[in-house]
Amino acid sequence: MITIRSAVLTYIGLIVLVLLTVGSIFIPLGVGNSLINLAIAVAKAALIGAVFMHLRKPLPLAAMSIFVLLFWLCLMYGFTLSDYATR
Amino acid sequence: MSVETQGEPLPTGLKASGELGVFVFLVSEGLLFGALILGYTVMRLSPGADFAGASKELSLLLGTLNTCVLLTSSLAAALATMWADGKRDGYARIAILVTAALGLVFLSIKSYEWFDEAQKGLLPFRDVSDRYPKASPQEHREFFDAYLVLTGTHGLHLISGIGLMLGITVFWKRLVHPAHTLKMAALYWHFIDVIWVFLFPLLYLVR
Question: How high is the pLDDT of residue B132?
Fold first, then answer.
């Protein structure tokens, strides 16, 4: 169960991360820009998941679902990109 | 069926819960968007392609504004869930309406962007070759194809999310367990938000 305080703090954190990610593109770092943007996107998704979706301490079935999603995504990206990178 | 009220084990020994069904659905949705983003990634990694350069044509201001609008809608959905759990139905229903309204604001801004881009000949509704007299206009065309597919699929999900939220608030008193139904719908809403969190940097911030 979340509180108004934790929801609002999470929201402020998310907006700060949006401003950070937008600001970061004005510093040319090449591939670094994409990596920073990806890291910030993962941080935002984690915040939304942990607080708004109540997944900080997920039920076993919810945790299993997330694991299954990540597992299949790893297979999908791993096989495709390893094929693509070794052509 | 609700986790709170349907505590009786089924003949299978499992307790019935809508929550697992929603998570299984979200996993399938995650794989759908994962595949679409993988297509984008492969196009972007094509050697020598100026695929991401076309991102400069998108409005960074409107994209950022839309991201903030969607994050605010997620806050409203989270507050609605919290108030519904606390039996403060009036507050919860207002927060659901705010969530749906912010979803409509997002779609309006997105529609304006699509209209503006179509007017400029950037979307695949018209040939963009005259817009890009550079050596490789094909990559720009591919970027806008990917952009339209990704934002279009996300927009369709948002439309169904808005319908879901409005349906819950309209039929609130007829629902057996409105707080639980809202919790399930809010999971879907936050998921749509998470998808946009990844689409925004991939489409708008690769300039």
Answer: 52
